[in-house]
Fold each of these.
Amino acid sequence: MVSEPNEALKDNLGTAIWIDGIQKLQDLEIASFFKSPITLNEAEKYAFSLLNMAVAECRSEEGFLVSGHANLMLHSPLYRIINNKQATRGNSYIFESDEIGAFRPWTNTISLGTKFYSTFAGKTRIPFYTFNHENTHLKVFKGVYSNLSMCDEEMRDLFILSEWVCISMDLILAHDLMRANQPACFRELCRVPFNQKGQNIFTRVCNSIREVNSFANEFRQTFLSGERRSAVFDLISEETLHLHREYAENTLLIEARKIPAAMENGEALSLLEKLRTSSLTDLISELIGVQYV
Ligand SMILES: [Zn+2]
């Protein structure tokens, strides 16, 4: 829940879980939370299985639920950094009645259309991967949506590459869930791949970081160039990629030019260069501070 073991009990979510399950979890030490899953003993495995059941659904924000939130907080270092309460403080989440919603991260707003949330028994629910994707736009890339000292082509690439990172985050979440053996959350994430016939893209490339990076490179080239590479369309449809490119080139560019520059020229150019050339996990390490090897 937090990166330092002795901070765990200061976190609201951590405290709630510990109070809720205190009887059954009394033998579980805080240090166990920071062990690799394959080194857990039987008692720890049992305690964690109870914990995983308890946290399958967890309210993360007032007014809506994020599916699997606590589970991802526990098992994904990337998710933990992007979506913890401190990182998301100040973000507004708006649920629209149209299908898509509006994209305006420069206002600290996440606006979701009906395609991205569900409502059951009066409760609104967002999947953890949508929450992570949208929060990444705000936490990592908010400054790029402004009138930077760049030509239109560079701005367009910056928007597309930012979107590329946000979409590619799903590959890392898949890697974390498979590594931690969390089938329920992994199954939910498997609604994302466009081509779900046969072996899906997550089970195919997310077992190793080397393969994740290799797929992400191919995805980046396809997204930037508009070339047709069929392997990429296993993750995201050609039509959706095309819509993202069109949106970056037209709407987003016009909107961003109206917003005062939120980044220094040198900083923006160096970010663009890194987004064009670094591997996905090197970018995650540099921009977010989480190491995947
Ligand atoms: Zn996005």
Amino acid sequence: MIAKNAQLVLLAASVAHSWAVPPTLSQRRPTLRSRQLVVKGGTSGAVVERPPYALSGLERPTHRGAVMGFLHNTGAWYALSAAYVAAALKQLQPSSFYPSFLRIALVAASSYSIYISDCYHNADKRREGVSEEGELAVLRKDYLGISLILSTNTWLWAHNLGGSPILNKLCLAASVCTANVAFQSFCVVNKYIGHVLIKLTFATQFVAILGTLCLIAAKSPISACAWIYAAYAPGFVIYATKFPKNKKWGYHEWFHISVLMGNLVSMGFDLGILGLFKPCAEGVACASLASRLTFGLLP
Ligand SMILES: [Zn+2]
């Protein structure tokens, strides 16, 4: 009952936020569009200023996009995703289409989101540079990436929970939400109403759909969903409240960290459900796990 009330409060707050906080888009010309970073005060101990966002003219915090840039440029996230899929598919032997698809879809969504976030936040460091057209095109894809992360989690965990009729309905609702986000992003944005409807759809996906799925999970032997929700929840609250604001590392950076944590927790618990960690849990030497994680390179 308390959880249900909390869910309603969270939903009401996010709905209010979607209307109360207008998307900060303006047609104002950005003052600086160069790809080059402007360095103040010489080379030693320099304060590096980055060009503002083209559409909103808002400042770009010093380390904005740092984590996404690292994960994209080093390929670390894509390698981790491939390792997760390889480990999951091995556990799924004989592999079947839908369970395999769910794992691939989960990492495809998070990898797509990381790539898009790098394009959006680090445009000034990328070949394409900062432009209104480029930023708008990437913003549309960014919205879709967030919705896909929520939907692929809903599909995977509904499946892991046994796929009852109510869980199937939640999956269908999540798919409809993602279709709506795609429609709003590519057909309505950059109109104000498009941004508002997308944020309301995110709230529905996170609070009403994934929240209900986790409430169902809480009554099942699989408690993993609670941890996944707990990892994503700070990001959702931070996204809605735009707090804390900081010139170096602000709410948007924390939002990305929270989403990454949610992705990791989801992948980790899924591998647990698939029995990857069983040898360790049963007290058998973890050598076989190490061997599996390193594709047999370790004995
Ligand atoms: Zn972002």
Amino acid sequence: MNFVLRNRQFLLILSLLLAGSATNAATNGLVVPAFRGSANSEAGYWEVFTMAAGAPGNLADGAGSTSGAVLTQHSPNAFLTGSGNIYNFTDASTFTLADVTPFALGTVVLQTRTVGSELDYSSVQLTYTDGGGVHSVAPLFRLELDRSVGNGDNVSSLWQWDLSGLGVSSYSIAFAAAESSMSFDALTLDTWNQFSVVPEPSVAALGGIAGLLLLTRARNFKPALRRLGKH
Ligand SMILES: [Ca+2]
Ligand SMILES: [Ca+2]
């Protein structure tokens, strides 16, 4: 447990260091993974939604989107704001993002921007189906990319999954608002047939304080391995 806790603390601190150094996709802190645009990758950027609830859902509207993934919101009480956000003051919106890829997945990176109420961060789950049935995969971590106080908190978050070796090329991600009055503002989805941690440590970050953090992690890692009997 301690190892898990320390690892989360490490990721949180690292995120504070890295969020400012990664390439910003927009002013709201979303980042551009280094693999975006490379072979065997897909990317989608949703900023203006056209379906508040139900089918056919929302394809990525951002220029250059290659994802083909569809975002569907399920609460019938949600509606579109003038700027094309999905808003729901009656109840907590729930979402499904469904995608297929022309390659076996190495990683999936999801980024969201919300205004007002926040997402239920524990609700974010990826599922896929194979011969063994339906499998649910928890994200490796949630990274808070930005938080600013406006009409409620405006929050940008990033989740990443490692699907290496699972042979997955069709999956969906479910997530939900923590409560009513969430305005769902934007979404990015990046997939790749390989895995590397996003955002990537920058040269500057690695040169300084992050080095100390890596040493801290190494110290925590060895006792954890001993406890697991893998020394
Ligand atoms: Ca796709
Ligand atoms: Ca928007």
Amino acid sequence: MSTEMNMNVKPELNLKIRHMRKSDVDNIMRIEKKAFNSPWHKDGFKSELTLNRFAHYFVLCSGSRLIAYAGMWVIIDESHLTTLAVDESYRGLGVGKLLLEFMITKAYQSGAVRMSLEVRPSNKSARRLYAGHGFVVRGKRENYYPDEDAFIMINDELDKWAKESRRRLNSVFGK
Ligand SMILES: CC(C)(COP(=O)(O)OP(=O)(O)OC[C@H]1O[C@@H](n2cnc3c(N)ncnc32)[C@H](O)[C@@H]1OP(=O)(O)O)[C@@H](O)C(=O)NCCC(=O)NCCS
């Protein structure tokens, strides 16, 4: 699967996924500040892109508009989803699901057999998205967020979910 691809799922949106660039960070911050109570600083994204050799960050664009992004670390056979967010105006359209499926597929292609993430217990939409893709709550990190603990969710059947995701992405992309 190539990194850059056109999606046919909603042809009118003209969706495309590509690697995140430093020049994307201002547009990412526009989404980040609305999506999270404790947003990352823009330098966090910049250092991930320039200093972290385990980092894999992607953006999803509708035409030329950046509408979603996600990042992960892949270290040998382990992957960790560090962030995933969709512009408020584009939620509920299946964009988050596509991007998660893309990240699962990429992680597996990079050698990961497992993916972990932290999520707010109060974040019902995200928990449902992850639970629908094989992630199970396996623990809790106390005081992870300034105002809330985090659930640790793990998918340790990444091979199975990558195959499912790949099948769906291929059908969406017409490959
Ligand atoms: C969580 C988030 C990424 C979902 O993106 P999205 O594009 O709106 O989600 P999708 O339309 O692809 O929906 C995928 C699944 O998410 C769940 N979901 C999405 N919106 C939901 C809602 N309002 N209520 C309950 N479940 C919801 C559902 O399981 C849905 O699948 P289904 O429709 O087959 O049931 C998005 O709401 C977001 O950016 N939130 C703010 C940032 C965030 O919380 N990121 C996660 C950090 S851990």
